[in-house]
Amino acid sequence: MGKLLERRKAVHHFGNLPGNGTVEHCSMSSDVLGVNKDFSIYLPNGYEESDQRYPVLYLFHPAGGTHEMWISMGNLPQIADDAIHSGMAVPMIIVMPDASGNGDFHLGQHLGYFSVQGWDYESYFHKELIPLIDSTYRTIADKKHRAITGASMGGEAAIAYAQKHPEVYGASCAMSGILGHPEQSQMAQTDKDYAASLIANDPSAFVKNATPQTIEQLKGIRWYADCGDSDYFYEGNVEFFLAMKKQGIPIDYRMRSGVHGWYYWITGLAPILHFLSIGFE
Q1: What does 127-169 look like in DSSP terms, one character per residue?
Q2: pTM
Q3: Which whole number is the average pLDDT over 13-25?
Q4: pLDDT band at 4 (very low <50, low <70, confident <90, very high)
């Protein structure tokens, strides 16, 4: 299993106010990938002063970003602090992994959360990162208290991971996820490995082709999807919703006015934290 190499506290805009959570930027070694991988983690207020254990959310960034993007662009610390302070969400640990590419604008080789030839990201995530988080931080390390969420390519991965590992996650949420017609992704037009990984993990196709046994397993997960009415992935999201309904798998679905971008995801995150908190409790 990979080893934790570094933990350093990050400073965010509201980090000095009393009663707020803290953020750490971390680095770990990965035996699976053969490189060091970064991640960021939000720890709720009171974490360091108590021995309490917390539910954990894995929050995936979109293409063109890094593990820090939910902090720098997505306002995650303030949203989580406000949701917890108001009682809208329960205190939780939020882990933000890195799935950036090696090229300009964090695109190119090794982009994405899916495994491709020579880069087994999914094994890294499930065999190294999750066990490291559960052994290093005070998580409640069971299915009910482990959730996964993401935006855009991270939204597809959040749904696909839960589909393939229904014993691991109690809830899965996507914001503007590539949940159908994955060939429409702009990055899929320039990166063949990335494009192939999106198509191979198409959540809509998975649901449509699911066996009765798999359908019953999927019913044991709380599902949520949110996509703007002017988002270029809205048709795929509607397709995914209809496929879930046809198979009798419950899902909370939202379509608000908006496009594919950070404003939509920022305004959609607090309701997701509330949705997850209901399941955690």
Answers
A1: IIIHHHHHHHS-B--SGGGEEEEEETHHHHHHHHHHHH-TTT-
A2: 0.95
A3: 72
A4: confident
